[in-house]
Amino acid sequence: MGLDDKVANAAEHAKGTAKEAAGKATDNERLEAEGQLDQAKADAKKIGEDVKDAFKD
């Protein structure tokens, strides 16, 4: 996994965490769900990159 990918995934995960927190704070279920989805996407991308890295070695 390249450094750019790691930074992008971390940023997407952080964005999702912030959205989820904002949704909880404002009792906005849609925003909370979007945040959870953003986090799940970032996690899935990280897993995919980790798998690719494992096969490179």
Task: Please outline what is shown here.
The protein has 57 residues and is mainly α.
Q: What does this protein look like?
A:
The protein is mainly α and 57 residues long. Helix content is 91%, strand content 0%. It contains 2 helices and no strands. Helix 1 runs antiparallel to helix 2 (29-56). The model has no long low-confidence stretch (mean pLDDT 91).
Structural class: mainly alpha
Summarize the amount of helix as a percent range.
over 70%
Large-scale geometry: elongated
Number of strands: 0
Continuous helix count: 2
Largest sheet: none
Task: Tell me the radius of gyration.
Answer: 13 Å
What percent strand? Answer: under 5%
What's the pLDDT, averaged over the residues? 91
Order of helices and strands: HH
Distance between the termini: 12 Å
- Low-pLDDT runs: none
Show the helix and strand layout.
Elements: H1 3-26, H2 29-56
Q: Which features would summarize this protein structure in a list?
A:
2 helices, single chain, elongated, 57 residues, mainly alpha, 0% strand
